[in-house]
Amino acid sequence: MAEEPVPARLGVEMREATFPDGTKGVITVKAGLPQAEVDAAAARIWAAAPATPETTPTPGAAPADRHR
What we know:
Helix content: 10-25%
Strand content: 15-25%
Low-confidence stretches: none
């Protein structure tokens, strides 16, 4: 990932953020936001996201039989 903030639309930038589980990702935030606030925004996104999307198959589960 980029060392410096990556410019995006006027007034926003793509920034690397650390999520509560320690993984890293890139989110769009207001330009110039301190890193602590970027990580806090990532935590809010993380908290609002569903734990397991309904469309994601469970690892190890047998595929659904669609021919019944």
